[in-house]
Design a protein that fits this description.
The protein is mainly α and about 160 residues long. The chain has one domain. Helix 2 packs parallel to helix 5.
Length: about 160
């Protein structure tokens, strides 16, 4: 089961990497067309927005795996006795957030199946699929880290 989970996380990391490339290329293309050719691309900003969302949600599980997300680490230095408690509360809040995103994505998918982006024509349903899969993977990894944390180990 661990190997399957590792393959899923690696795939999501790959999707996040490709999304980063697409965001970068579409922004560079827009800059090139605007400043050197005197015309604007109608689809590049929309494409960058869509793939930025895909990047964020597919990269969440990877970031959670190594416990590399943003934290206010000074609180751990000021209150070292409460570090595990603060991390546990943070993980529980993250789990609640993930569950809400998963349910929201599931609820909106039936309507989003028929919506396309205006300029690029991309189906918006893929954005919601990325949110669903990414948040689901983040949720699973957060539960794994919460269990590790409360068994006495580090969460990452």
């Amino acid at each position: 089961m661990k190997k399957v989970w590792e393959h899923i996380k690696n795939f999501l990391g790959f999707v996040a990497s490709i999304s980063t490339l697409i965001v970068g290329i579409s922004i560079i293309a827009q800059i090139f067309f605007r400043f050197f050719l005197g015309t604007a691309l109608t689809w590049s900003e929309e494409l960058a927005q869509i793939f930025l969302i895909v990047l964020v949600f597919t990269g969440l599980a990877t970031v959670e795996t190594n416990d590399e997300h943003l934290q206010i680490e000074i609180l751990f230095s000021i209150f070292p006795k409460y570090e595990r408690l603060m991390k546990t509360i943070g993980k529980i809040l993250t789990i609640i957030f993930c569950i809400s995103v998963v349910f929201s994505a599931i609820n909106i998918l039936p309507a989003a199946k028929f919506i396309r982006a205006k300029a690029s024509g991309l189906p918006i349903k893929y954005v919601y699929y990325a949110m669903l899969v990414g948040s689901g993977a983040w949720l699973i990894q957060c539960v794994i880290n919460l269990i590790k944390l409360n068994k006495g180990g580090k969460s990452a």
